[in-house]
């Protein structure tokens, strides 16, 4: 992918230096960790008053997690630690920023055709775990989009998993992952995500999973639509790039992941779509280059 020297997005939030410390967390868990230290000290008047105060605050529901997590013994900040610079990872962070900037160009153009204003999402880089408006998450769950704060979250270590565990290397495979999550942001702006959420509240688990699959496949199609724009108007793709994206889409299909994890496939439990479906819808977005081609919710568009 021809990305070097191109504009980087100003909507990247780097939280890679922020890590959960030994005393960070909820007030109750932090208090339980701190009490043994206080009780183990020589108990003077101040210590006893402090213990009583902490217990009273906990009893009356005062959140003291932030206070207790603010510092740790030895004067160290518990919620943050210094990040050792990694040139390779920083280069990848620049790449992610360029890809995000390019999705901004594509979606601004597509929204203008609908006489609408595209609102750019923020991409959060994190390491290990992160807090979002949708709750806390670890890097094990992979990249995700939170509609509550309209941010995309990604731990760059995921790309090593994509390469080593899922056999999908290449920079355009990495770009596809970002474009897919941005696709969920587009669904939020268009009101699609809210409709799916409302529909899932009144149907069975199996029917809800089918709705989720349609939503995910549409995000794949939107990623293909971005790739179409990136190639047609900015000539970013190099030979083999499309194959990298298709390989990544195939690698993270529900059937393939279930086969690897359980040794069997349960279609009714799919939430993202099979490998063949994910490849098909990405390709459809890439070849058609229109929003209309990505209507996975149309009758008969997705089998099942």
**Largest beta-sheet details:** 4 strands, mixed
User: End-to-end distance, in Å?
Assistant: 35 Å
Structural class: alpha/beta
Return the string of H and E elements.
EHHHHEEEEEHHHHHHH
Measured as a percent range, the helix fraction is 40-55%
Q: Residue-averaged pLDDT, rounded?
A: 82
Shape: globular
Total E-strand runs: 6
Strand fraction? 5-15%
Low-confidence stretches: 20-39, 54-81
Radius of gyration: 23 Å
Total tally of structural domains: 2
Strand order of the largest sheet: 1-2-6-5
Total helical segments:
11
Tell me the layout of helices and strands.
Blueprint: E1 12-14, H1 27-40, H2 45-59, H3 65-68, H4 87-113, E2 122-126, E3 129-132, E4 135-138, E5 144-146, E6 151-155, H5 158-164, H6 171-189, H7 192-200, H8 205-234, H9 241-251, H10 254-262, H11 275-288
Describe the structure.
- The structure is a single chain.
- With 304 residues, this protein is of the alpha/beta class.
- The protein has 2 domains: 27-68, no CATH class; 84-294, no CATH class.
- It is 52% helix and 8% strand.
- It has 11 helices and 6 strands.
- The strands form 2 sheets. The chain has a 4-stranded mixed β-sheet with strand order 1-2-6-5, covered by helices on one side. It has a two-stranded antiparallel ribbon with strand order 3-4.
- Helix 1 packs antiparallel against helix 2 (45-59), helix 4 (87-113) packs across helix 6 (171-189) and helix 6 (171-189) crosses helix 8.
- The radius of gyration is 23 Å and the shape is globular.
């Amino acid at each position: 992918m021809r990305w070097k020297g191109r504009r980087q997005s100003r909507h990247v939030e780097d939280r890679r230096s922020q890590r959960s410390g030994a005393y960070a967390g909820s007030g109750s868990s932090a208090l339980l960790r701190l009490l043994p230290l206080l009780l183990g000290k020589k108990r003077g008047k101040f210590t006893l008053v402090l213990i009583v105060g902490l217990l009273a605050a906990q009893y009356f529901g005062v959140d003291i997690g932030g206070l207790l997590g603010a510092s740790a013994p030895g004067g160290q900040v518990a919620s943050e630690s210094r990040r050792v610079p990694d040139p390779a990872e920083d280069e990848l962070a620049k790449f992610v920023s360029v890809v995000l900037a390019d999705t901004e160009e594509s979606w601004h153009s597509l929204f203008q055709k609908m006489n609408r204003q595209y609102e750019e999402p923020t991409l959060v880089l994190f390491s290990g775990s992160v807090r979002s408006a949708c709750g806390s998450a670890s890097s094990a769950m992979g990249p995700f989009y939170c509609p509550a704060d309209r941010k995309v979250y990604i731990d760059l270590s995921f790309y090593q998993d994509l390469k080593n565990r899922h056999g999908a290397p290449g920079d355009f495979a990495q770009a596809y992952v970002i474009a897919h999550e941005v696709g969920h942001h587009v669904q939020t702006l268009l009101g699609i995500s809210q409709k799916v959420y409302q529909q899932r509240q009144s149907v069975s688990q199996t029917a809800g999973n089918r709705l989720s699959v349609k939503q995910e496949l549409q995000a794949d199609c939107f990623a293909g639509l971005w790739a179409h724009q990136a190639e047609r108007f900015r000539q970013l793709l190099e030979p083999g790039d499309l194959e990298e994206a298709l390989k990544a889409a195939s690698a993270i299909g529900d059937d393939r992941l279930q086969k690897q994890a359980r040794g069997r496939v349960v279609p009714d439990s799919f939430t993202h779509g099979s490998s063949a479906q994910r490849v098909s819808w990405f390709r459809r977005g890439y070849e058609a280059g229109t929003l209309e081609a990505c209507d996975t919710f149309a009758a008969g568009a997705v089998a099942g």
